[in-house]
């Protein structure tokens, strides 16, 4: 229900307007002078203001000017019994939505009110959409450490060329951002940037995803599908986690890179594609080649230019800049004043292990913003940086004691069944990871869950390789 404020020094006009608007199911408040009206505008959220021009204490034009300085998007409809064209023009110049003469015509009043409310809604929606669009824009690569400066310099040199690029680095270090900037600064900017997470697609579907398929090529192929290579035609194809791609798919990607041609699954026609490929992985592909999991010829095709993104622990000097930037962004998203991060808090953040890299840092900053006071201190960092310590490892909570010769947890320490399930799940995953020497792919296969799901569990429980 829209909230409307009426500011008019004539009781009869206020009562008439209130009756009309309340009959139309609007929520209405009214005052008899501009000072009280301006005070209400500052304190409450109105969708529309109907304001008389000639009033004692403060006239309507002054209310309009001061009101819009407080709430720039608030629609004002000005009312006057002595209306002239000059008055209407002046009100419009000062930002009024419309001007109505007294006594107001009922139909004109209601049409004007609805138009003003619709305009207010459109302004709000436009701002929200602009905010969303700004978030989708490629953010800057933040940092001035030597490693980051080298990456920026490499991007400037490589992006305008057609050279293929292999981006390596740990999860959450920013490989995708590097790929986006390679596209942004290339001659293919006007073309699409198509991203494929090879680890998230089952091996039996990866070929259909990349190259598309013809109708009837397999049981669920009820219609023709255009693959990612075709979608990226004229632009850039970003193959994330390419180290997880099946050998059969690797062979087809190699052919596509060699000949710039693809064939859809179940099809016979060769399709020309003009695509620049950027690949990324968190694996050591040379070790994968030795293990027989990755093709050496594909490796050399992709590794024309190699960009390695260092983990956050190797560029701790960038943490203050990253933290401040994340803090400002998150506070803006939440519609709250930007919080300060103390120097001691920055030093405490630098000392953390950051197994999740930039992604983990952003999550920690968001947690600190929510849980801390106006200034984030080093004590806040110690208390909230690892959410699992207070949940999964409180002091004297999970003391293991022997019972009939078997080590068991102290069951009285668990507040609920869910707490114990989380504890048991964490210990099980930790055991399996250590057993497989922290090979995530092998562990995921061993415990029969998707690799991406296992990564989520590792992050949830704060598991780190010792």
TrEMBL record:
Domain Sigma-54 factor interaction: from-to ranges: 141-370
SMART domains: AAA, REC
GO BP terms in the entry: phosphorelay signal transduction system; regulation of DNA-templated transcription
Chain ranges of the Response regulatory domain: 3-117
Modified residues (4-aspartylphosphate): 52
CDD domains: AAA
Keyword tags: ATP-binding, Nucleotide-binding, Phosphoprotein, Transcription, Transcription regulation
One Pfam family named in its UniProt record: Response_reg
Keyword Nucleotide-binding recorded: yes
Entry keyword annotation includes Phosphoprotein: yes
Domain of life, per lineage: Bacteria
Molecular function via GO: ATP binding; sequence-specific DNA binding
InterPro entries (UniProt xref): AAA+_ATPase, AAA_lid_NorR, CheY-like_superfamily, Homeodomain-like_sf, HTH_Fis, P-loop_NTPase, Sig_transdc_resp-reg_receiver, Sigma_54_int
Full protein name: Two component, sigma54 specific, transcriptional regulator, Fis family
Native organism: Pseudopedobacter saltans (strain ATCC 51119 / DSM 12145 / JCM 21818 / CCUG 39354 / LMG 10337 / NBRC 100064 / NCIMB 13643) (Pedobacter saltans)
